[in-house]
């Protein structure tokens, strides 16, 4: 089966996951922000990887724009963020909010992996917002996460997605 991993990354976490996926699946790795033209028709399956910023899935515009080309393909989405991975309903609501109709209408199987936030890499405005938010958060664990950053990157979190892709390809 011929596939591709397409991704958007802002600070590198999603790019790292995308690279690991393309290596494990032995498929092309495409940064949709840098690629001049992308031919989606030549692939049997597509894996989209996207971070979440301010509730926005960075790759949603690309997916919406190319929706007609996704028909008949196996399509997967890896969502990368600092959200609690147990909050499946919150993630599903965020996905629904990022698409022009219910996300389920896109027939995309989605998976979640934790990202990384390195405060020193953030821009001024983002740092400012995070500091303000940290002051308002009551939960000490969440407050510490915002004040100190976090690193939830784990290659093993890709296993379920890789297994699903291989199973669907049989």
* CATH class membership of the largest domain: Alpha Beta
User: Count of DSSP E strands?
Assistant: 8
Termini separation (Å)?
9 Å
* Structural classification: alpha/beta
Radius of gyration using CA atoms only: 16 Å
The CATH topology of the largest domain corresponds to Rossmann fold
Largest sheet: 6 strands, mixed
Give the number of domains: 2
Relative strand content: 15-25%
Question: What is the level-2 CATH architecture name of the largest domain?
Answer: 3-Layer(aba) Sandwich
Which stretches of 5+ consecutive residues score pLDDT under 50? none
Secondary structure: helix percent: 25-40%
What's the number of helices? 7
The CATH H-level homologous superfamily of the largest domain: Flavodoxin domain
Global morphology: globular
- The overall pLDDT, averaged over residues, is 89
Helix and strand element order: EHEEEHHEHEEHHEH
């Amino acid at each position: 089966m011929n596939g591709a991993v397409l991704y958007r990354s802002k600070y590198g976490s999603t790019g790292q996951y995308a690279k690991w996926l393309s290596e494990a699946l032995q498929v092309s790795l495409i940064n949709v922000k840098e690629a001049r033209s992308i031919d989606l028709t030549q692939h049997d399956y597509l894996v989209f990887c996207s971070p979440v910023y301010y509730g926005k899935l960075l790759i949603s515009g690309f997916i919406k724009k190319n929706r007609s080309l996704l028909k008949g393909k196996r399509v997967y989405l890896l969502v990368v963020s600092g959200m609690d991975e147990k909050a499946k309903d919150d993630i599903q609501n965020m996905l629904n909010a990022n698409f022009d109709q219910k996300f389920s209408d896109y027939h995309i199987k989605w998976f979640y992996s934790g990202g990384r936030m390195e405060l020193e890499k953030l821009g001024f405005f983002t740092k400012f917002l995070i500091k303000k938010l940290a002051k308002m958060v009551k939960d000490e664990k969440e407050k510490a996460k915002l004040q100190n950053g976090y690193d939830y990157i784990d290659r093993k979190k890709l296993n379920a997605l890789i297994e699903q892709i291989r199973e669907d390809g049989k």
